[in-house]
Design brief:
Helices cover 32% and strands 25% of the residues. The chain is of the alpha+beta class.
């Protein structure tokens, strides 16, 4: 990957910081409404503090009250229903072609940012399944060891990444973080379909 392309991708990962930075459920849902997504908070979870970092911005997080397990949500709009100003509109519209064709490359960049440059195998979801479950056009998942020196994964060892993409709408990411693999998928289950496209 050319260095200039890498920096462009990193800029996309950090893009929402120039718009709205979600800290609570109301602010997060406002972001989602503007770019055509919905979120249902599962019962029994507490909000988790946003950790600002240079690896991967995210807009909302939940945690189990009694387990060392959290989920962080990141949304990268491709277009908004309504634009705050012409600068925001021009920024997003100028990226649309790239974002609609390079979502897998962007996903890989996310993975490399969180692992300290180590690429892991990943599984692309079946097209019909990702449409049915997330109303998305494409989706992918992988399980990685987090970079112990990274800011995003500080305090955690493992992360399951789920990414979903819908043409002209957005890319969205789920990050499930834990320090153990024991009962990992049991902890994922109630959170798995919480964020979807309309």
């Amino acid at each position: 990957m050319k260095l200039s392309k890498y920096f462009y991708l990193v800029a996309i990962l950090l893009l929402p910081s120039i718009f709205t930075f979600g800290q609570n459920l109301s602010e997060f849902k406002t972001i989602l409404t503007e770019c055509g997504m919905t979120f249902e908070k599962p019962s029994g979870f507490d909000e988790s503090k946003i950790v600002e970092n240079a690896d991967m911005n995210y807009e909302y997080a939940l945690k189990y009250p009694d387990k060392d397990f959290i989920i962080r949500y990141a949304v990268r709009p491709i277009t908004y229903k309504f634009y705050a100003n012409s600068e925001v509109k021009n920024e997003l519209e100028g990226q649309k072609g790239f974002r609609n064709s390079q979502y897998e490359i962007i996903f890989k960049t996310v993975m490399l940012n969180l692992t300290g440059g180590i690429e892991y195998k990943y599984t692309v979801f079946d097209t019909e399944a990702v449409k049915s479950e997330f109303n998305a056009d494409w989706g992918v998942t992988t399980f990685v060891d987090l970079n112990p020196n990274g800011e995003f994964g500080k305090g955690y060892k493992y992360c399951m990444i789920v990414a979903i993409h819908k043409r002209d709408i957005a890319d969205a990411y789920y990050f499930y973080l834990s320090n153990t693999k024991d009962q990992f998928m049991d902890n994922v289950d109630p959170l798995f379909h919480s964020l979807k496209f309309e």
